[in-house]
Amino acid sequence: MKIKSFDSLDHDGIIRVALRAWAPVFQTMEPAMNPDVYQVFYGDRWQATQQQAVDQVCADVDNPTWVAILSGEIVGFIAIKLHHEGRMGEIYMVAMVAVDPDFQGQGVGGALIQLL
After folding, report:
1. Potential cystine with 81: which of 31, 52, 62, 92 (Cβ 3.0-4.6 Å)?
2. How far, in Å, CA of 1 to CA of 21, rounded?
């Protein structure tokens, strides 16, 4: 597995991974929430909302982002938000670490977390 800094050519691969990785989360949230509340917060547009969030984090030069590549394919990514004033960092947004479901359980997420 290769881990490299994000560049604009990685955008579509990151979006694909994010949507595949987060689909099960939204599938389990929907029946667990009040249907009206789910529709207000997510509805049928969760994919667009997640893509917008990924776009924003990747566009911010203050948020280092790395991608994991296996067999020439992006299989995961991580974005970090740095707080320079406090010399701290955080994995940005809930679940901003994403690993393609086909590659989960193979150490991709752990390799990305080690960058911290």
Report:
1. 92
2. 18
The C-alpha atoms of residue 76 and residue 2 are separated, in whole angstroms, by 11
pLDDT tens column, 56-84: 888 888 778 899 999 999 999 988 776 66
In this structure, what token pair is assigned to residue 76? 């995961």
d(CA 58, CA 29): 26
Structure tokens at 58: 């990747």
Domains present along the chain, CATH in parentheses: 2-113 (3.40.630.30)
Q: What does the alpha-carbon distance between residue 67 and residue 73 come to, in Å, rounded to a whole number?
A: 10
> Model's pTM, two decimal places?
0.74
